[in-house]
Amino acid sequence: MATIYVDGKTYEVNPNNNLLHECLQKGIDIPYFCWHPAMGSVGSCRQCAVKQYKDENDTTGQIVMSCMVPAADGTRISVDDEEAVEFRRSVIEWLMTNHPHDCPICDEGGECHLQDMTVMAGHNYRRFRFKKKTYINQYLGPLINHEMNRCIQCYRCVRFYKDYAHGDDLDVFGAHNHIYFGRHEDGVLENEFSGNLVEVCPTGVFTDKTLKEHYTRKWDMTTAPSICTHCGVGCNTIGAERYGSVRRILNRYNGQVNGYFLCDRGRYGYDYVNSEDRIRTPMMRQENGELESASKELVLNTLKEALKSKKNIIGIGSPRASVESNYALKKFVGSDRYYTGLSDTESKLVDKIIGILKNAPVRSPSLKDIRESDAVFILGEDVTNTAPMMALALRQSIRQEPLKLVDMLKIPRWHEYAVQDTLQQRKGPFFIASVTGTKLDDIATRTYRAESDDIARLGFAVAHILNKDAPAVKKLNKEVKQLAEVIAGALKKAERPVIVSGTSLGNEVIVHAAANVAAALSKEDRRTNLSYIVPEANTMGVGLLGGGSIGDAIRGVKDKKADTLIIFENDLYRRANKSNVDSFLKHFKHIIVVDYMQHTTTQRATAVLPAGTFGETDGTFVNYEGRAQRYFQVYYPEQEIKESWRWLRDATLQAGHNDFKEWQNLDAVVGAINREVAAFRKINEAAPNSRFRIAGLKMSRASARYSGRTSIRSHENVHEQKPPDDPDSPFTFTMEGYSGIKPPGLTNLFWAPRWNSVQALTRFQEEIDGPLRGGDPGVRLIEPAQRFSFSYFTDVPAAFEKRNDEFYTVPLHHIFGSDELSIKAPWIGELAPKPYVLLNKEDAGVKEYNEGDEVEVQLSSGTWKLPVKISDSIPAGVIGIPAGLPGLETAILPGWSTISK
Amino acid sequence: MTDTDIKYLLPEIPELHKIEVYEKEGGYEALQKALAMKPDDIIEEVKKSNLRGRGGACFPAGLKWSFMPKNSERPKYLCVNADEGEPGTFKDREILEHNPHALIEGTLIASYAMGVTTAYVYIRGEYVKWMKLLEDAIEEAYAKNYIGKNIAGSKYSVDIYVHRGAGAYICGEESSLMNSLEGERGYPRVKPPFPAQFGLWGCPTTINNVETLANVPVIIKNGAEWYLKIGVEKHPGTLLYGVSGHVNNPGVFELPTGVLLTDLIYKYAGGIRDDKKLKAVIPGGSSTPILRGDSIEGVRMDADSLIEAGSSIGTGGVIVMDEDTDIPKILERISRFYHHESCGQCTPCREGTGWMEKIIRRINRGEGTMKDIDVLRDVADNIEGNTICALGDAAAWPVQSAIRRFRGEFEAKIKMEKTVAA
Ligand SMILES: Cc1cc2nc3c(=O)[nH]c(=O)nc-3n(C[C@H](O)[C@H](O)[C@H](O)COP(=O)(O)O)c2cc1C
Ligand code: SF4
Ligand code: SF4
Ligand code: SF4
Ligand code: FES
């Protein structure tokens, strides 16, 4: 701790931070642009100037940039000093000389940091009497709009894009006051995190292009804290709505999870909520065989018979449905008749993963832990495509080891360019073993390309080197052995290594190998971080709840004598062979599907009930880490759209079952889970319950400036209608209620007096760049056991042997395209690759295939005609097919296939 | 004050740029002497000599060298600043052309003193001819083992590389120069940290001007005592004064520090052309504050004297302007230069320089207002001292001084317009 003096007042501060950081921390307003807590200081905008004095006798002082001066003990500054005030005014005046002042049509409007700073720095009279310079804007793809004229040259965009996210197609061009931020030519921004420019840029240069498609002023949107639904990372988001459609997604800071950023899948995938494929009304299969809309009453009445006897019912849940809905289904049909909805492979792997995380001497890390890791070993995952934000976190880890040099040389870590000058090209140890090239290869110390069993063998070998108790690998070739030595050596030297693996290759032995490595690295006082990537928002949730796989359901159906099937939010055809699903469904007289999207399975339903997306419902998801996180309904839907558990409650009540009679709201469901499922004993800590109030008030979803509160429905009824009630959460659907700083899990808007942009975030943090005030939301459900019971996995596979007539076929994941939901957003669809089959050069040579040739790939789940893509890196005997792309959803991978022309 | 005939940078010796001639004249003896000395003693000697940087800031060279860490595990570097971009300055190229081995010898002594094993000469992009000349000289010195492994029979090894810039004035600023050498954009770095701790590739680095280093051999050879007697004690040695503008005999003159500015103009540069009256002088390169012609009586050319006179010695580039000179026009040209050369990193300079240029141009066009002068002054005042590098100051000083000392000329342009309009 150090003491500093600001305008005569004394403050206790952390001397490792700079003055700007510490002043903002103490609630002192200093305007700034270029500083960003995640990206440090560079001193370029000069907006944060203050007066610094040598000692108490110094009355003249000197203007300094507060972001560039350490908050060292005894520092004396004045923010209010006349000269400092005048200089700050002149900085904003300069920045405004060429600014177009096009606020009324600017997409930044309503949350513009430049506006805030202009007011804060006191520039209100224009003295610049010249023409403004103008720029040509660029086409940057479907996600981001570019309007260079609004730029104030703060350099934040390139600092994020290049320095933080390691993108290389956005840069700064030109010199003097003709500085241009953009690409070398028009074109889609290539980096998977480009959407963050929208929030990083303090002006309207980079804005959300998808919001433009259905523009609404920022203050006219209803917002709620949400959780991203597009992968297993569970980034915290804010969903925003107007007129019944979701308009955009913003980042919601969580110090332990996504921090300041989101991936582009997460930010832009939301439009599935507004998709034409949505199910918005109850539907019944008619005599003519067609599914047609019907009233809720009619459908529920008809379902009475189907639901009469629980013994006749089988329930299949889903990794994209909430814990609450899955739990309700499981409770109603009983453990032996509930299936998680995971595929066979996923189910097996997830069970394994949970077992390992609970019992092995390892710990599942948060993204923050990953960002702070100082050595990385990835087994089998193309992380950028399977858990994008984890990849961004991993990218930060390469700095950790070299930062020791920075510390040794006493360079403050926030002094970004000095840090970069010192680090130069130094990178911490980073190893990737994967089937083919990954999007993290550019930062890797070494990469290893091999079939998944061989990847596992490398892992097993590393573990054996680290600890002789772990099994040895037989017949390992020399190169791999050497590589294993190098990896083991680097991991051993590290203080905070992380091992990353996951389910994406569908190979159990990789999961085992990763566990062995992590366990072998653990010491008495240190559990090694072991991060398993799982595919969907609630894969871990259903895993913890427990239940059989879809395959189990299919195989067991004959013994169960069931004639009613309830499916929650799941397209079975994506997870099991088509023929098996077809024959499985034939066993049932009643197939009730509760879902929000139409898909192959809903087409086979006898009744369909409209479930809600994150936009219309509340619930809890458990992310890869084992962190339970609550998402809150964003808006009140006009149609009969409800949580799956609510439909089950209503339908079963109607059918005469009283199981859920007491379930009036979400709290009741959460309470039941809390009481009944050991793994979820802490689930109620994920967020405040519906009775939470501040000063007796509910929390407002709409901002204080929301327009149309009383008139939005006046075309239906001129009388003011009572706003709908929300029994499930402490939120109102309107601007009524508490609109100040809400507790961490309930933040739906970053706003503070004088701070209308996301920069208001500093007011929400306990510590800038640290946890939110009151702690980062979410609760970890899996902590390492005090005493562990672990014996090393011994199932070291034999080396992969290619077959003559068959290819081992692995799924290749794509950030844009592989996710069932985000692909429904047209702009994500535009970025998704076309289907293809990836083939090794050698194999292509033998087969005499050329790039682009169309071939037929025959898997047990079907046959596909695909153009050939030739690769140097995929091992011979292995081919890859993009996972989940439209047209390929039903390819069940991995598996063996044959190819012919 | 000593003999104005002392010339060690540009002595009148034919073919001095050839190593044989240089050696014959006693060249590389200082290096031999230095290699027999303890590095710290060399630094002490240079400190004692009061040698001050010739790149514009007059920073004591010995002191700068002493900032370099002694026991560094990381490599140390010396950068020779041959970017010579300041308008009105054309002295370093004379050394490169006529006495390159003095620079090389000085570089070697400095490198040895600081424990540097690699030196880079960063040379202005337009100096193609001078780069060739320097490279030839370096090649000669390599051939004679003054540069390279175990130089001149010692255990010390050092390499010198020449790197050509791409024509940006800002790359003459020391930290920008290092970024440029690293292949980055030529953006100045925020200090601290200082180059002696974190310079080139994050390693300890010293940057010196060509002329500064070319002074080193004579100091080592003849000793600090000898050197202190040349010119003004607090800023001793000879300077290469580059006189340009409305004089009869423009050129580079090697004279001791402290020479009278009037002597420089009237005696050495042959007086004002057509016997016109002197209106103004910029004494140290275009960034130094402009002086009124009627205020230079008795003003001497050294660091302290010029500060007292309200300007700065800068790089010793004297720009002389006669009575016909249109000061606002001159200022427009100067401001255009600094605007154009602003790197664009920090706000005051990036935005302020362009704005200043625009206002001055408008005044020159006769479209200015009285208020413009105040705004101009205000912009300049807010730039000064508040930028990342000194280019901001360099842009502000000419404006501030021109308004302060020639306000009438600006007002006249504005009033003239008013009367014409009326
Ligand atoms: C904008 C700018 C341009 C500069 N250009 C040069 C230059 O061309 N040559 C030079 O020697 N110093 C130049 N300098 C000064 C250098 O930053 C540095 O102070 C100098 O090279 C140090 O050498 P010295 O101590 O030997 O004078 C420039 C400074 C600024 C701010
Ligand atoms: S585009 Fe935005 S982030 Fe980039 S420099 Fe301009 S204002 Fe800053
Ligand atoms: S990483 Fe996953 S959870 Fe996070 S924003 Fe991207 S898709 Fe969503
Ligand atoms: S003062 Fe000018 S040249 Fe120097 S860093 Fe700032 S913008 Fe660049
Ligand atoms: S925030 Fe300090 S200079 Fe930009």
Relevant terms:
heterodimer, A: 901 residues, alpha/beta, Ubiquitin-like (UB roll), Rossmann fold, 5 domains, 7-stranded mixed sheet, 6-stranded parallel sheet, 26 helices, B: alpha/beta, 5-stranded mixed sheet, 4-stranded parallel sheet, globular, binds flavin mononucleotide, binds iron/sulfur cluster
Quick overview:
Chain A has 901 residues and is α/β, with parallel strands linked by helices.
Average pLDDT confidence of chain A is 96
Give me the side-by-side strand order of the main sheet of chain B. Answer: 8-7-13-10-11
Q: Under CATH, the topology of the largest domain in chain B is which?
A: Rossmann fold
The helicity of chain B comes to 40-55%
Q: What name does CATH use for the topology of the largest domain in chain A? A: Rossmann fold
Which cofactors or ions or other ligands sit in this model?
Answer: flavin mononucleotide, iron/sulfur cluster, FE2/S2 (inorganic) cluster
- Report the total helices of chain B: 16
Report the major sheet of chain B. Answer: 5 strands, mixed
Q: Report the helical percentage of chain A.
A: 25-40%
Secondary structure tally: strands of chain B: 13
What value does the Rg of chain A take, in angstroms?
Answer: 28 Å
Biggest interface, CB < 8 A: A-B, 40 and 35 residues
Largest sheet of chain A: 7 strands, mixed
